[in-house]
Automatic annotation (TrEMBL):
Keywords: Oxidoreductase, Peroxidase
Key word Zinc-finger present: no
Keyword Iron: no
GO molecular function, one term: peroxiredoxin activity
Protein name as annotated: Alkylhydroperoxidase AhpD family core domain-containing protein
Residue stretches making up the Carboxymuconolactone decarboxylase-like domain: 27-105
Pfam families noted in UniProt: CMD
InterPro entries assigned: AhpD-like, AhpD_core, CMD-like
Source organism of the structure: Pontibacter lucknowensis
Protein backbone atom coordinates (compact mmCIF):
# COMPACT_ATOMS: atom_id res chain seq x y z
CA UNK A 1 0.00 0.00 0.00
CA UNK A 2 1.41 3.41 -0.95
CA UNK A 3 1.83 6.10 1.67
CA UNK A 4 -0.97 8.01 -0.07
CA UNK A 5 -3.41 5.11 0.23
CA UNK A 6 -2.29 4.41 3.79
CA UNK A 7 -2.73 8.05 4.81
CA UNK A 8 -6.14 8.43 3.16
CA UNK A 9 -7.45 5.12 4.53
CA UNK A 10 -6.31 5.90 8.07
CA UNK A 11 -7.69 9.45 7.94
CA UNK A 12 -11.07 8.28 6.66
CA UNK A 13 -11.31 5.44 9.17
CA UNK A 14 -10.38 7.61 12.14
CA UNK A 15 -12.61 10.52 11.08
CA UNK A 16 -15.55 8.11 10.89
CA UNK A 17 -14.68 6.75 14.33
CA UNK A 18 -14.37 10.25 15.79
CA UNK A 19 -17.71 11.30 14.30
CA UNK A 20 -19.38 8.18 15.71
CA UNK A 21 -19.01 9.70 19.18
CA UNK A 22 -21.52 12.37 18.10
CA UNK A 23 -19.80 15.23 19.94
CA UNK A 24 -21.38 18.53 18.91
CA UNK A 25 -18.25 20.65 19.45
CA UNK A 26 -16.02 18.30 17.44
CA UNK A 27 -18.60 18.09 14.65
CA UNK A 28 -18.80 21.89 14.52
CA UNK A 29 -15.02 22.19 14.47
CA UNK A 30 -14.74 19.71 11.58
CA UNK A 31 -17.51 21.59 9.76
CA UNK A 32 -15.71 24.90 10.30
CA UNK A 33 -12.57 23.40 8.75
CA UNK A 34 -14.56 22.09 5.77
CA UNK A 35 -16.30 25.41 5.20
CA UNK A 36 -13.09 27.44 5.56
CA UNK A 37 -11.54 25.72 2.54
CA UNK A 38 -14.58 26.16 0.28
CA UNK A 39 -14.66 28.71 -2.54
CA UNK A 40 -15.11 32.24 -1.23
CA UNK A 41 -13.28 35.52 -1.72
CA UNK A 42 -10.26 33.26 -2.29
CA UNK A 43 -10.43 30.28 -4.60
CA UNK A 44 -9.97 26.74 -3.27
CA UNK A 45 -6.52 26.39 -4.87
CA UNK A 46 -5.21 29.48 -3.08
CA UNK A 47 -6.71 28.39 0.24
CA UNK A 48 -5.09 24.97 -0.05
CA UNK A 49 -1.70 26.54 -0.79
CA UNK A 50 -2.14 28.76 2.28
CA UNK A 51 -3.07 25.70 4.33
CA UNK A 52 0.06 23.94 3.07
CA UNK A 53 2.32 26.83 4.12
CA UNK A 54 0.72 26.98 7.57
CA UNK A 55 0.98 23.20 7.98
CA UNK A 56 4.65 23.20 7.07
CA UNK A 57 5.45 26.06 9.42
CA UNK A 58 3.54 24.28 12.20
CA UNK A 59 5.38 21.05 11.23
CA UNK A 60 2.28 18.85 10.98
CA UNK A 61 3.11 16.01 8.58
CA UNK A 62 -0.50 14.77 8.44
CA UNK A 63 -1.70 18.26 7.59
CA UNK A 64 1.04 18.65 4.99
CA UNK A 65 -0.02 15.40 3.30
CA UNK A 66 -3.67 16.43 3.37
CA UNK A 67 -3.00 19.85 1.82
CA UNK A 68 -0.56 18.42 -0.73
CA UNK A 69 -3.28 16.03 -1.86
CA UNK A 70 -5.78 18.88 -2.14
CA UNK A 71 -3.24 21.08 -3.95
CA UNK A 72 -2.63 18.23 -6.39
CA UNK A 73 -6.39 17.85 -6.96
CA UNK A 74 -6.64 21.61 -7.58
CA UNK A 75 -3.98 21.47 -10.29
CA UNK A 76 -1.11 23.14 -8.45
CA UNK A 77 1.99 22.84 -10.64
CA UNK A 78 5.48 21.79 -9.55
CA UNK A 79 6.59 25.39 -9.88
CA UNK A 80 3.74 26.63 -7.70
CA UNK A 81 4.21 23.98 -5.01
CA UNK A 82 7.93 24.74 -4.83
CA UNK A 83 7.14 28.44 -4.34
CA UNK A 84 4.83 27.37 -1.51
CA UNK A 85 7.68 25.27 -0.09
CA UNK A 86 10.00 28.29 -0.40
CA UNK A 87 7.63 30.48 1.58
CA UNK A 88 7.18 27.82 4.25
CA UNK A 89 10.93 27.37 4.63
CA UNK A 90 11.52 31.11 4.78
CA UNK A 91 8.81 31.69 7.39
CA UNK A 92 9.46 28.53 9.40
CA UNK A 93 13.22 28.41 9.21
CA UNK A 94 15.54 25.44 8.90
CA UNK A 95 13.46 23.34 11.31
CA UNK A 96 10.96 22.97 8.43
CA UNK A 97 13.51 21.22 6.19
CA UNK A 98 12.77 17.64 7.37
CA UNK A 99 9.05 18.24 6.70
CA UNK A 100 9.97 19.79 3.35
CA UNK A 101 11.84 16.60 2.41
CA UNK A 102 8.84 14.43 3.30
CA UNK A 103 6.55 16.84 1.44
CA UNK A 104 8.62 16.53 -1.74
CA UNK A 105 8.56 12.74 -1.41
CA UNK A 106 4.76 12.78 -0.99
CA UNK A 107 4.30 15.22 -3.91
CA UNK A 108 6.38 12.98 -6.16
CA UNK A 109 4.32 9.96 -5.11
CA UNK A 110 1.10 11.83 -5.96
CA UNK A 111 2.50 12.54 -9.42
CA UNK A 112 3.69 8.95 -9.89
CA UNK A 113 0.32 7.58 -8.82
CA UNK A 114 -1.40 9.76 -11.41
CA UNK A 115 1.04 8.64 -14.12
CA UNK A 116 0.43 4.98 -13.26
CA UNK A 117 -3.34 5.31 -13.69
Amino acid sequence: MSQIEEFNEYRTRMNERIMSYDNKVIKRFFNLDTNTYMEGALDVKTKEMLGLVASMVLRCDDCIKYHLGKCFEEGVSDEQVFEVFSIANLVGGSIVIPHFRRAVEYWEELKAQQSAS
